[in-house]
């Protein structure tokens, strides 16, 4: 590995959100542009992806927008996901099932409240060699002193129990944020893996409070937790790999006060340490953006229902009036967007704490080994097996990325990176 050039075999992102509608059209091509050649797609769409056919329909949409990427699909753990559906999904090449505790993150209203009822599903997943992906938080509970700051710690007992009850089931603790999560995964068998995001290798809780574009679930924790994440990446341990949790949201969803000010026909100045003050649109354009966001969301819900719910009735937990309430009384959406500059961001980060020599293992080899996903020769370009080349540079992340009626703010907006993709 040269000092000014880095070659990586087929980087893979084992946790990415690519959304729907116009947002999907904007961000899906960014996956390849950011250096990713294999992407493991999250199923928390509206409605959630709970059938094999819905997952295949979704993959078809993604392949049209970015045919160079190998899209690995998942199902959303839900009562519709039966043992029979698992066998059907396995035969169709669906790789895993994602569990969301009810209400803890974006589009998790259909999430689970107890794992016990899904034990027959997990048993078949174990037999079919599928992966169970766990959003590792429990819902907040003031009476038990459970909040977003300690919800991951309280979840770890569930991970341990599932590992014991299904010793051959591959399980991934997604987007770990705490030292306790790292030590727990290290203590469990090789069937337990763990994804780590780029942003959690940089952020701490102090970075989140003043900056909505740093707010995500699970929330960034204390410096000692960040150090644990960095140390395990630096060690090269094969159980830990890149899962970006890149989660784009429209500008107005990340700054709800901006939408509120627009409805009041007022102006609002917003500034931050990431140079986003220049991105705030004028009052007239904000009104247009608010209207567009509402229309886009309603249209996307209708289209995806038709495409993903063929032959199904109303999904449990999904109600249009709930979506209308969210639009009228918004809170800051949870999610950090990293896809377009993902591999250069990760390279810059790892170099900053002395782990650049582990880059290829973290962004490709470790995850591929755990998921049993070899490099896809059919996706290779020019015989290079999807190798990505980085060179040292002074690439600056833009303050905003615009699409058709949608805008997103990338992680590290305005920041200079140390690396860029050249091929």
Query: What is Rg?
Result: 20 Å
Biggest beta sheet summary? 6 strands, parallel
Query: How many distinct helices?
Result: 14
Q: Mean of residue pLDDT?
A: 85
Architecture blueprint of SSEs:
Blueprint lengths: L4 E4 L3 E5 L4 H13 L4 E4 L10 H14 L4 E3 L1 E3 L6 H9 L4 E4 L19 H10 L2 E5 L15 H15 L4 E5 L4 H9 L4 E5 L8 H4 L14 H13 L4 E3 L8 H4 L1 H8 L19 H26 L11 H9 L13 H11 L6 H13 L16 E5 L8 E2 L4 E2 L10 E3 L2
Parallel strand pairs: 2-3, 3-4, 5-6, 6-7, 7-8, 8-9, 9-10
Antiparallel strand pairs: 1-11, 11-14, 12-13
Notes on the protein architecture:
The protein is α/β, with parallel strands linked by helices. It is 37% helix and 13% strand. A six-stranded parallel sheet has the order 5-6-7-8-9-10. Keywords: Hydrolase, Metal-binding, Pyrimidine biosynthesis, Zinc.
